[in-house]
Amino acid sequence: MPRSILSDVCVFVSILLASATLAAQTPIAVTAIRAGRLIDPDTGRVATNQVILVEGNKIKEVGANVAIPPGATIIDLSKMTVLPGLVDAHNHLALTYKPDPENNFYYLTYVMDSTALRAIQAVSNGIQMLDAGFTIVRDLGNNGNYADTALRQGIEQGWIPGPTIINSGLIIGGMGGQFYPTPEMAKDHSIVYPEYLDADTPDEIVKAVRQNILFGAKVIKICVDCKPYGYTADEIRLVIREAAKAGLKVAGHVQTANGAKNAIDAGIWSIEHGNALTDDLHKLMAQKGIWRAGTDTPDTLAGHPVTPQAYQRTVAGLKNAYDNKVLLTFSTDADYFVQGKTRGEVCMEFLKTWKDAGIPPAEILRAMTTNGYKVTDLDKTRGPIKAGFFADLIAVSGDPLQDIDALKNVQFVMKDGQVFKKDGVMTPAAFFHGGPVNGWRIR
Ligand SMILES: [Zn+2]
Q: What is the mean pLDDT of residues 62-82?
């Protein structure tokens, strides 16, 4: 090694050592939360008068007789129900289509809103999701030119508050993705890219998956059957194999029974949208342990009318999946503006479909928590209120095990050990920083 590089390396190493020493000297914040009622959604059990001890960004201890160390900040939630953070397993935070001017037609949103503007929307939408109690969001494409990766990095590096983001980067599909461009506009795929990443041949499929991995995807999203020339089971297997090299799972947008069959045969991780899923397909999904992200839209969203027939089909589909013991996730696809509601409040409206399907509150809560941690592949580190896990938790005044709508009124949110919302008011100051305080190496 030339001398100059060696001395550069020495300087770099001593800077690293110095900053490590500094970090070691900073006292770790300790917080003790008094929880009147603490729900474990996994078992459906409730423990009363618990203390949750949080050290830094992790949960240290939970129990009725936990000693509170001197100097700990005490948060009194003794009149509230505390539970782990919620998960939306299907959203698009860097997309907000609107009645005006684009008449809810997101092809036009894509033409009119720059990626830069959409990245700013994503930050705001992420904050609105956290405010509603969603501490994890699976962000599945239609996010401009990797604005989803930028959002995830911004949150993880410590610039802004937001949920933990599991993002897909660009949606990979056969030519055109979900768009129907004119031949003129499709020249060189310019109108499709970067909203979709065309991949028609095996070589293109491998390259597309690698591009997403390179640019920060944490899950791979494909259009299984957006066009008549959708992917075969073998092509989906190729996606799964390539994604697995980086430890990523594959989520498939499915809109036909044939597409669903191919995705199930290939052993896809999750199927997005429930419309095409029949009783037979649900049985196969249950057998193979494939997640259902049904995106089960309610009939109450102003400006987004659903016909009674369509809504009945959605409810019947979700009920059939539940009866067949399919692995269910709470998923919304809520990527649009509803007058008077935040993004998080729009997502909470989806509880109606679950209630109308006759699914008990404890099971709905499990879909929003335990199953959410699993489908995002975070369940080893994040989710449960247990020692060693990241400290993400929320509190409500009612009892969601009796009335799931209690979740619509989240009073308290802690994310990574820091209080984001208290007494029903967002207090995010501690999350904003002038630089990447958690390190710029988070990619
Ligand atoms: Zn979607």
A: 97
